[in-house]
Amino acid sequence: MSAHQYDEGHTIAGWTGVAIATVGTSVLGVGVCAVSGALIAGGLAITVVSALVTWALHLSGWGKPPGRRPRAEWGMRVRDTSARAGHPGCVGCRMAGRGGVRATVVEARGAAATTAVAATTAATAAVAAAESVPVEPVH
């Protein structure tokens, strides 16, 4: 048996993002301890850059899609060839305009659901009518 039984998602994008975020949060921590607005702003900026760098590397194929990968793709230096088209269910790909496959609502509701919606709408209208009280202006 191998020492690694699970795909832990070790990727170039992940490790690069973590390294930059570590620097950013370290600068941010020093800024808090030193009560320095410039260091706090710098640390926040570096942390934002880490997210953007990670996202860019993911989109260029150095990340991984959501979920499990085949064992042959577990290596850190294995490039993701499906990144160009986008990963289904991946928020980062969707934000970049890739992976247009989205979960859609199945239209198998039938007449029962339509009737239930109509009954709920009618009940809501009846409650609203019963609760309305005429208001007279105060002089």
Average of the residue pLDDT scores = 76
- Low-pLDDT parts are 101-110
Oligomer: single chain
Fraction of residues in H or I helices = 40-55%
Round the Cα radius of gyration to an integer and report it: 26 Å
Largest sheet: none
Tally of DSSP helical segments: 4
Give helix and strand order, one letter per element, not per position: HHHH
What structural class do you assign from the helix and strand content? mainly alpha
Shape: flat
Query: How many extended strands?
Result: 0
The end-to-end span amounts to 87 Å
- Percent strand equals under 5%
Lay out the secondary structure.
Layout: H1 12-34, H2 37-62, H3 91-95, H4 110-131
Helix pairs in contact: 1-2
Short description:
It contains four helices and no strands. It has helices at 12-34, 37-62, 91-95, 110-131.
Your description of this structure?
The structure is a single chain. This protein has 139 residues and is mainly alpha-helical. It is 55% helix and 0% strand. It is built from four helices and no strands. It has helices at residues 12-34, 37-62, 91-95, 110-131. α1 (12-34) packs antiparallel against α2 (37-62). The longest helix is centred in the middle third of the chain and has 26 residues, at 37-62. Mean pLDDT is 76; it is low at 101-110.
From the structure above, extract its key features.
139 residues; mainly alpha; 4 helices; 55% helix; flat
